[in-house]
Design brief:
This protein is of the alpha/beta class and about 450 residues long. It is built from 18 helices and 14 strands. A six-stranded parallel sheet has the order 2-1-3-4-5-6, sandwiched between helices. A six-stranded parallel sheet has the order 7-10-11-12-13-14. Strand 11, helix 11 and strand 12 form a beta-alpha-beta unit. Helix 3 packs across helix 7, helix 9 runs parallel beside helix 10 and helix 10 runs parallel beside helix 11.
């Protein structure tokens, strides 16, 4: 029987700037943000389901558990984002010294397989369901390749998906359990590599399969908060509504990532509340017309900007909190962006907010553009946290950008803003309860 370690390397949740770390670690406002970054690695759990049934798997999240490098594993599988990947390479190096076969996958390895291949035995560049079966066949025959990749990105249909091994999470007490229902994104935002990794075609699991996963999570972790880890969950609106109707049958609490267009669909909002939605993450990106222009290829978010305030109010009036994400330091941003962003968050009573810095992730259009302009300050991936400055801003200094992000958080966390937010949270909870009571009656 083979012994396999599935390892998620330690990450850096608040970046490396000491002033930011000190402030954010002491702020309860960031509890929602911690939830978003505290879930398990679905990629590794999916790999576990693809392995032969007689192989013994151990899931190790280095944020929660110390790795035993002396344990006799036959295979060590690592999945990492860019900010984790140097830790991933370190882990692989330790096991390679002992003659253990090491494999790495995840977003970073998918877009930079040649780099990753310098530190591990095998690189998985693509979706596990597509490339792992070939690796396992080669492993059994003793003829493994250095890099396994998809012939065409985004072709795995998701019609008969592999259920992740949620049972491997026993003992971790994650604040959220993640589930993925869709892959692929047609928007090709300049700062995001999703369309390159998963393709531009939007793919979605069938409702019956999604419901099976939800029931498995409910059985194993009955009181957990569920995070739908899709970039945009409700693109296929009719199928989504049917799923939410099925979810009325089970008692769960959940959060999801989506876009602002849900505000236009009252039926969807009501079903979301009734099925257990607590809050949603929406990428506003910027409150500036000039900064939103060209951010996605169809200027979709730019066209939504005039409706942001009204849409936030409607969503929260239904009892669903809006957690907004923003990027400051875009090329058209001046020093005004910090006050404007803080004012927008406070004036619209947003449930929560995450403010980040433009980060030239591998595989993004942003990185290609900034490389041509010689504006990338470092390719030390441990700084690619979205909190640390890794580029030369166009209209700000690096220090102004770093201090400006801290200023926004200080503003939205001061006592006056906190009092307003508390009132909003109570209203959201009250409205959610009213809708649920109306449904029960």
């Amino acid at each position: 029987m083979k012994q396999v370690a599935l390892i998620s390397p330690k990450g850096n949740i608040f970046g490396k700037n000491e002033k930011m770390i000190s402030f954010l670690n002491g702020s309860r406002y960031m509890d929602s943000f911690r939830l978003l970054w505290s879930g398990p690695s679905l990629g590794l759990l999916t790999v576990a389901s693809l392995l032969p049934s007689d192989w013994e798997c151990e899931y190790i999240d280095e944020n929660y558990k110390v790795i035993d490098f002396d344990k006799n594993y036959d295979l060590v599988c690592i999945s990492a984002m860019s900010q984790q990947v140097l830790n991933g390479y370190r882990i692989a190096e330790e096991f390679r010294k002992k003659g253990v076969l090491t494999v790495i996958g995840g977003i970073h390895a998918t877009v930079l397989p040649e780099e990753a291949s310098q530190f591990v035995d095998v690189v998985m560049a693509g979706e596990a369901e597509v490339i792992w079966p070939q690796f396992l066949e080669d492993y059994e025959s003793g003829s493994i390749k250095k890099i396994y990749s998809e012939e065409c990105v985004g072709q795995y249909p998701l019609t008969d998906p592999i259920m992740p091994r949620y049972d491997l999470l026993k003992g971790y007490n994650y604040p959220v359990i993640t589930i993925q229902t869709t892959r692929g994104c047609p928007h090709d935002c300049s700062f995001c590599a999703a369309s390159k990794v998963f393709g531009a075609k939007y793919r979605r699991k069938q409702n019956e399969n999604i419901f099976k996963e939800l029931m498995e999570i409910k059985k194993l972790y009955p009181d957990s908060l569920i995070l739908f880890a899709d970039d945009n969950m409700f693109v296929k609106r009719d199928e989504s509504k049917e799923l939410l109707k099925e979810m009325l049958k089970i008692d769960i609490r959940w959060i999801a990532q989506t876009d602002i267009s849900i505000a236009k669909d009252s039926e969807l909002l009501k079903l979301m509340v009734l099925s257990g939605c607590q809050w949603v993450v929406i990428g506003f990106e910027s409150v500036s017309y000039s900064s939103l222009y060209g951010l996605d290829k169809n200027n979709w978010k730019l066209n939504q900007l005039p409706h942001y305030a009204e849409s936030i109010r409607k969503i929260q009036d239904y009892g669903v909190g809006v957690y907004g994400t923003f990027i400051v330091g875009l090329d058209q941003d001046s020093s005004n962006v910090f006050k404007d962003t803080a004012d927008f968050i406070i004036e619209n009573y947003i449930y929560g907010a995450n403010i980040t810095i433009p980060t030239p992730l591998p595989g993004t259009r942003l990185r290609t553009e900034l490389e041509l302009q010689n504006r990338i300050l470092t390719s030390d991936w441990s700084y690619y946290t979205f909190w640390d400055v890794t580029i030369k801003p166009a209209n700000l200094t690096a220090d102004e950008l770093q201090d400006g992000v801290l200023y926004i958080y200080q503003r939205i966390c001061d006592s006056s803003a906190a009092d307003k937010r508390l009132i909003t949270l109570k209203k959201i909870a009250k409205r959610r309860k009213e809708l649920i009571n109306e449904y029960i009656i």
